[in-house]
Here is the input.
Amino acid sequence: MSEAVVSTRVRLARNLSDYPFPIRLSDDKAKEIADKVDEALRDCGVRFHRIDLSTVSDTIRVALLERHLISPDFVRGDKGRAVFLSDDNTVSIMVNEEDHIRLQVLRDGFEPDEAYEIADRLDNALSRKLNYAFHEKLGYLTQCPTNLGTGMRASVMLHLPALDITGAVHRIGANLSKLGLTIRGLYGESTKPVGAFFQLSNQVTLGISEKAAIANLKNITAQLIAQEMKAREQLLGKIEVRDKIARALGVLKTALVMDHGEAMSLLSLVRLGVASKQLSTLSTDSIDRLIVEIQPASVMTKFGEEMTPQERDIKRAEMIRERFE
Here is the structure.
């Protein structure tokens, strides 16, 4: 299953009962909430460091997004917004995004139960210090009605190159809503898939328990992966596909300039080759880490924020060559 599953995320949306939702929140009240969360986290058993969004550049914000530590919506504003990151970056807590608190836990591979257990433990620790907005029938109250109830979104990042190449992933996606799930692009809602990476997540949060939602996600994920493996077996029987994978590795090892889109497409093919044992180069885990490191803002954060697109593409190619040596 690890061949197709890159990572797992569990996110909880919470609001404080003493404050209006973020859309009606003043700057002073937004900062007040961030300070309250800061204080509450000091006794949760995990060490966090705080980043106030108003104090960092746009490049750093986007780099945080590329690492899935914050959301696309969170990047676009800074009114009282802060993110709290655990030392190992497996837990991030966005304050004053669409809701007052968006607590998310990230895990490598397919670990929804483990991710939920950590999120639930931290949520309980925060609830002892903060007054959550909760309704007996509706559950946790959220700014968007689609998150009412558990306020939980559990998702898995999937690499589905075979289903993407055959076009089957789009047909499957159209039917997932009937099962209470949705499939989206690399960075979630309103984003397009890149390099055949997709996010599968639950849609239903009202009238269902967290454990039932995770069980449904696990079941559908297993079915999707079974279809992907069957499609891979058929695809890899074709010399044209195996040749394309081998050529992708050759380009990655030798190219002097590489834009983001091309890099993602080529790395996706090489990841498929490694997972299917056609190639004996980097592990899939190493490729997954490289994919994060070569994102545009991440490259600029490492080598200097004042870079032209060509300078960035040259550095990206250099990073990839060095990794495949």
The beta strands are 5-14, 48-52, 82-86, 91-95, 101-108, 134-135, 139-140, 152-159, 181-184, 197-202. The two ends are 28 Å apart (CA to CA). Residues 183 and 200 are 4 Å apart (CA to CA).
